[in-house]
Design a protein that fits this description.
Layout: H1 2-8, H2 11-22, E1 31-34, E2 38-42, E3 49-53, E4 56-61, E5 68-76, H3 83-97, E6 100-101, E7 108-109, E8 114-119, E9 128-134, E10 140-149, H4 173-178, H5 182-208, H6 214-232, H7 239-262, H8 272-286, H9 291-298, H10 302-306
Parallel strand pairs: 5-8, 8-10
Antiparallel strand pairs: 1-4, 2-3, 4-5, 6-7, 9-10
Helix pairs in contact: 5-6, 5-7, 6-7, 7-8, 8-9
């Protein structure tokens, strides 16, 4: 899901995320490139070629300067004892791919990416893990790997990391798994619903502050609906939560339509409830929502949506 969000997000939203995670201050008009995340590497012991797949590699460059900064983002649901080793392995592969060799082959320069690990749920990992690299001349270089623990924050604190907001619905997941009591599940559903409304308010605030675009906002709500369905659709107590999310999608489409009308975009004559639903579906479609999500939000058939 994280890769999907990054691939669907606007460039300014990605820069905003980088600024939030790494405490940087890049202008939001930086050039953004999502780099290939697969490498072929020879295994040091067996000599066999193996495929290495990272999560997200992002290059930021200024429109006016040639300098580039490369960021490696790895996402984890829980603690992983091998994550630090994998981060170094990935970073070395990324650095070697962009190596610069002198014309006479007498020297080579590599630039390590700036790494970070995002933990979706609670983690005991330190905020910064250090990888100490010792060279033959006894010189030591420390490679720092910061970690960001999403659920250690409240929703409002994620305003600076808007693309992470959908993952906050994981907040009740473990507690829900531990209980078979319907009354307790209902309380958790109410708690989740309050989180979702708070997330929606934060998305609106991010949009107002121009951290994310209208399309980003719709995309984040759509991803949240999809995550909710995957995580909680088997629990009867969570039907109201699903309905709340669908209503937020409808609201997004109606607000987008109203903005368009204010800019003088004619939407046609309203002809009853069915035409209103069709218009909502068309707006969701133009904003990049999948047909499955539009069916969930509007109740229209696949054929009706395809014809819009």
């Amino acid at each position: 899901m994280f890769k999907s969000i990054i691939n669907d997000a606007s460039a300014s939203a990605i820069v905003h995320l980088i600024n939030g995670i790494y405490k940087k201050n890049y202008p939001l008009d930086m050039n953004v490139k999502i780099e290939p995340n697969e490498f072929i590497k020879e295994h040091p012991k067996t000599g066999k070629l193996e495929r290495i797949v990272t999560d997200i590699i992002i290059t930021l460059s200024s429109p006016k300067e040639k300098a580039k900064d490369v960021f490696l983002l790895e996402a984890q649901i829980d603690d992983d004892l091998d994550m630090t080793l994998r981060i170094f392995n990935y970073s070395a592969a990324i650095a070697l791919r962009s190596r610069k060799v002198s014309k006479n082959n007498s020297s080579m320069k590599i630039k390590m990416p700036v790494p970070a690990v995002i933990y979706w749920e609670t983690s005991k990992t330190k905020d910064i893990v250090e990888i100490e690299i010792e060279f033959p001349d006894n010189k030591t270089v420390v490679y720092e790997v910061p970690s960001f623990k999403v659920l250690n924050h409240n929703v409002s604190e994620l305003e600076g990391l808007a693309l992470l907001l959908p993952f906050y619905i994981l907040k009740i997941r473990k507690e829900l798994k531990r209980t078979a009591n319907s009354a307790k599940r209902t309380l958790l559903a109410k708690k989740l619903e309050s989180y979702i409304l708070e997330i929606d308010a934060t998305i609106k605030k991010c949009k107002k502050n121009c951290y994310i675009s209208d399309r980003d906002a719709g995309m984040l709500r759509g991803k949240m609906l999809k995550m909710n369905k995957e995580l909680y659709s088997d629990y009867k107590e969570f039907k109201e939560v699903d309905m709340t999310l669908k209503q937020l999608l409808r609201n997004e489409a109606w607000e987008a339509e109203e903005r368009g009308e204010k800019r003088g975009v004619k939407q046609g004559v309203k002809q009853g409830v069915k035409q209103g639903v069709s218009r909502t579906a068309a707006k969701l479609k133009s904003m990049g929502f999948s047909i499955a999500q539009i069916i969930e939000a509007t109740g229209l058939s696949r054929r009706e949506i395809s014809a819009l």
